[in-house]
Automatic annotation (TrEMBL):
Record's subunit section: Part of the Bam complex.
Protein name: Outer membrane protein assembly factor BamD
Signal sequence region: 1-21
Keyword line: Cell outer membrane, Lipoprotein, Membrane, Palmitate, Signal
One Pfam family this sequence matches: YfiO
UniProt function note: Part of the outer membrane protein assembly complex, which is involved in assembly and insertion of beta-barrel proteins into the outer membrane.
Family label: Belongs to the BamD family.
InterPro entries listed in its UniProt record: BamD, BamD-like, TPR-like_helical_dom_sf
Coiled coil: none
Xref: CDD domains: BamD
Record PROSITE patterns: PROKAR_LIPOPROTEIN (PS51257)
Main location: membrane
Length: 241
């Protein structure tokens, strides 16, 4: 009797899943398959749309619908929370179509997809503050929206991108604040001061920057640096919450 390792079973499951997905999509002309995919997209049936679009993409990679199929897949993956697949499709599209007329939209979707990687359903559901979680997807999203604004300032997605950058900046500032607070609670006074000052320099117009002054003040007091503590107190008075 053969025995499979857990990793082997997982790999087998993935292979079966991929092959069965292709099998359930009828072998019909591309125009029919594309029309069916559009109906699924419009009705919000993301998984069905993805199955049909993936079939189109694999069967007719250089067909008349090729570019639009990839664009539709980017959107469907995002809506279905298949974020890694969405990012892979975006990378492929940008590599193959570096001057495409919808490049601003693709950059916008990459920003949204990176933002979605920072989202956690359970945290949203129970309103849990997780400012200390890894902000790398946030940094990537910020860079995407920034690139969109620099390259396509007249894009219809520019205004929303700017608003999202403001929210992302606050998210990054909150992460730095959580880090500074962590150092303070561990009595790493110098590290707490350095992170607080870095936050104030990088994100000066955020609430987190103002809150970091309290951490900085406590750290200076613990180090008995009276002059620095007094200057920080003055900054707090000038910047009330």
């Amino acid at each position: 009797m053969k025995h499979f390792t857990l990793s082997g079973l997982l790999a087998l499951t993935l292979l079966v899943g991929c092959s069965s997905s292709n099998e359930i999509v009828p072998d019909v002309p591309p125009s029919v398959l594309y029309s069916e995919a559009q109906v699924s997209l419009q009705s919000g049936s993301w998984l069905t749309a993805i199955e049909k679009l993936e079939a189109l993409d694999s069967r007719y990679p250089f067909g008349a619908y090729s570019e639009q199929v990839q664009l539709d897949l980017i959107y469907a993956y995002y809506k279905n929370d298949d974020l890694a697949l969405g990012l892979a499709t975006i990378s492929r599209f940008l590599r193959l179509n570096p001057t495409h007329e919808k490049q601003d939209w693709v950059l916008y979707m990459r920003g949204l997809t990176h933002m979605a990687q920072d989202r956690n359903f359970m945290h949203d559901l129970f309103n849990i503050d997780r400012s200390d979680r890894d902000p790398e997807p946030v940094k990537l999203a910020f860079a995407d929206f920034k690139k969109l604004l620099e390259r396509f300032p007249e894009s219809p997605y520019a205004e929303d991108s700017q608003k999202r950058m403001f929210a992302l900046k606050n998210r990054l500032a909150e992460y730095d604040l959580a880090t500074a607070d962590f150092y303070l609670r561990r009595e790493a006074w110098i590290a707490a001061i350095n992170r607080s000052q870095e936050l104030q320099k990088t994100y000066p117009d955020t609430i987190a920057a103002r809150k970091s002054l309290d951490i900085q003040l406590e750290a200076y007091r613990q180090l008995k640096l009276d002059d620095a503590a007094k200057r920080t107190e003055q900054l707090i008075e000038l910047n009330p919450l």
